[in-house]
Amino acid sequence: HAALILGAFRAAAHRQATLPRLARHLDGAIRWDTSQWHTTTHNTNPTPGTDASAGAGAETGTGASASASAGAGAEETFATVSLLDIPDHRHELSTISCGHPPPLLLRNGHAHPLTPHHTALPIGLGTLAGPPNYPIETFPFHPGDLLLLYTDGVTEARNTHGTFYPLTERAPAWTHHTPHHLLQQLRQDLLAHTNGRLTDDAAAVAIRRLPPHPHTPDHPHEGDGAT
């Protein structure tokens, strides 16, 4: 399902779709794919009680981050997603949250979770509560700010005592890192916390808003990703 989400995102994003239209496109792609899987499963293995399961995680660079999972029926396949739009010439970002962990905004030694006031259902479950609604929320994103997106495989990583990885406590120390260095530090810290045993997919993307430069007006972001 990670490949499906990425493919659907790339097919729609290049048409400069709005964030709500993009979310609806992804939701429809997941629901169509799982309905095809459900039909194929019943056609090829009609034995009552038969089930199947799969899991995946995905990251897309600066456009979206997602975690996907599948269960026994089509209604159990979904993906939590954060969709972002970072305009070149405004110091802000717009986002839609579909059940995904909130991004962290790192600024001046502090980590600020960009917790939305409204969240949508995960992608693939958008019609369970009626017509899907995807509210957009906007947050400041100034030059020098560093944005960290991550899957729940990061925050739910446990040590030998069962303690979750304390991302919001560790991240403030990384506010002045480059995106690449931040992700290297995060990976090393995660492996140290779990004694080298990550039991779930963990992925992250880091994006820094660069100050305006007269020779590069169309490239105000510096980003990196890791899994």
Automatic annotation (TrEMBL):
GO terms for molecular function: phosphatase activity. The keyword Hydrolase applies. It comes from the Bacteria. The keyword Hydrolase applies. Pfam families: SpoIIE. SUPFAM superfamilies: PP2C-like. InterPro entries: Bact_Sigma-Reg (IPR052016), PPM-type-like_dom_sf (IPR036457), PPM-type_phosphatase-like_dom (IPR001932). Residues 38-72 are annotated as: Disordered. PANTHER family: STAGE II SPORULATION PROTEIN E, STAGE II SPORULATION PROTEIN E-RELATED. This is Stage II sporulation protein E (SpoIIE). It comes from Streptomyces yunnanensis.
